[in-house]
Design brief:
Helix content: 25-40%
Strand content: 5-15%
Number of strands: 8
Distance between the termini: 31 Å
CATH class: Alpha Beta
Bound molecules: zinc ion
Largest sheet: 8 strands, parallel
Shape: globular
CATH topology: TIM Barrel
Number of domains: 1
Order of helices and strands: EHHEHEHHEHEHEHEHEHH
Length: 320
Amino acid sequence: MRPAESGDEGHGPAREGAERGRLHGPSVARRFLTDAHAHLSLVADRLGAAAIVGLDKAWSPGTRASGEGATSPFVVDVGVDAEDFEERKRRFGGFPWVRLTAGAWPGKVAVEGRERALAALRAAAADSACVAIGECGLDYFHDEAPRADQLALFLGQADIAREHGLPLVVHSRDAFEDTAGALREASPSTPVVIHCFGYDRDAARIFLDLGCFVSFAGNVTYRKAAALRDALAYVPEDRLLLETDAPYLAPEGLRGKPCSPLDVGLTYDFAAALRDTGVERLEALIRGNAGAVFKRRRGGGRVGEPKQPRGGTRDGRVDG
Ligand SMILES: [Zn+2]
């Protein structure tokens, strides 16, 4: 979710590639850090295909050096369209620094074509390249579809995550109560990430009580985002994630421009200062948390056995 102050940024109607080809200058903190949520297809649309080459140059040497293991920083490329998984896998699945999710954002098309969307996501979830389901959830800011129908699409994806033993990436904008209610109802047995957290400390506490990870994007750096900063200071180390949501929500300094996962360093710097910790320590922490949530799956499609309906126990998924 994105607070009102972020204006119309976010997954609304697609924007044109007005800034295609523009790359950020060398002055910003462009470092090899884990980004728990980005949209590489949209980064390529906005910044041009060269941006992806730049990302590969930044990430691949480090990934190779650390042997592609869970100890290496990585980028989670998050699906928003139920049918985009194969295309994203073809474009980005070969990069050792990318982990892919499959999900349907609660827009009009996906909500109205729910069964088709869920069938596509079931197929994607069976692919060992898929490390999580989402982003999925409720968006009462864009409100593109009836809320009851958004909820049905959300719970359908929570079921798929359960069936496949996969974590769930949740989008929630202006919909805190219903998101918490849906998570209570779904009671996922796998990790849940509240991506681009956009509420306050009390909401963070409730999501934490529900067992969720809380992920902060570049909007936490915005001047008016006091409630987000308060929540960022509050979330315990073992439940914290950082992300860009690139190309959206560029951190202060790049605000209003499309960003890429290389800009996540600005949010790390900000979070480290706010939490009074070192960036290197924070980087290791986020990398560990993200690695624990977005585990690589070994071939064969599924990692764990299919989950029990409702209330199944946490499975013993293996990591790669
Ligand atoms: Zn997103």
